[in-house]
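$ ./design --mode recover --in tokens.txt
reading tokens...
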């Protein structure tokens, strides 16, 4: 729970950052949290954008990739493509403590077991590895490419949020899909190969659908049961959560 002082500080910080350019927001975050900040990437549809922005401002920033073991083959190939595109990237890959085979032997296919199963799946495969990454890398701040236009669950997010020990910074929170597209085209940045096949949000292969299949952007993940995997839920499932 945030104290009144923390809330007032965040209001001032967000008022200041809302008027700033995206690169200025990143520079502020990196300077304020020097040596204690990471960037997360999913190597998803538009992940090249945040890598280009953040590594252009602060190339030494550690990049954390949570590999659930259930990603599309195209995602792994895209990750290798972006490693070549950004040779300065300091990539740290984290995997769940329990293998996919072990999980399925104990719990079955959690992604088919409704909201409760999906939440357990998220805790095992997303939340725990990210908590471990933040702890081992000594991170008190986390740069993320969330945008308000991506989902109703993200519309109230500000540039900076905090819960418990960790600050979450969203430099492109107010960017539109058009701004993202134009930036990527201007910088000649690659989209995930599945983006060209109608996937607007790309996660695990067992619970990601095309926009045409889902009928709605928010329903393309987790069969429409939920939108967030646990990493970005306001209710939170870990010390870092916002």
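writing sequence...
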């Amino acid at each position: 729970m945030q104290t009144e002082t923390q809330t007032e500080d965040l209001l001032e910080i967000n008022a200041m950052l809302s008027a700033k350019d995206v690169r200025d927001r990143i520079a502020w975050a990196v300077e304020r949290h020097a040596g204690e900040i990471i960037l997360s990437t999913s190597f998803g549809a538009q992940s090249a954008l945040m890598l280009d922005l953040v590594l252009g401002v602060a190339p030494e920033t550690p990049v954390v990739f949570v590999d659930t073991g259930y990603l599309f083959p195209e995602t792994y190939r895209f990750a290798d493509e972006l490693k070549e595109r950004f040779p300065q990237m300091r990539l740290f890959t984290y995997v769940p403590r329990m293998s996919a085979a072990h999980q399925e032997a104990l719990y079955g296919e959690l992604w088919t077991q409704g909201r409760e199963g999906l939440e357990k799946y998220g805790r095992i495969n997303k939340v725990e590895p990210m908590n471990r990454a933040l702890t081992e890398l000594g991170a008190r701040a986390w740069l993320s490419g969330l945008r308000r236009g991506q989902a109703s669950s993200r519309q109230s997010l500000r540039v900076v949020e905090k819960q418990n020990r960790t600050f979450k910074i969203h430099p492109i929170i107010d960017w539109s899909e058009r701004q993202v597209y134009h930036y990527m085209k201007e910088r000649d940045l690659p989209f995930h190969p599945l983006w060209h096949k109608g996937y607007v949000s790309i996660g695990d292969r067992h619970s990601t659908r095309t926009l045409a299949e889902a009928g709605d952007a928010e329903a393309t993940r987790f069969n429409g049961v939920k939108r967030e995997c646990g990493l970005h839920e306001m209710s939170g499932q870990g010390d870092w959560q916002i």
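exit 0
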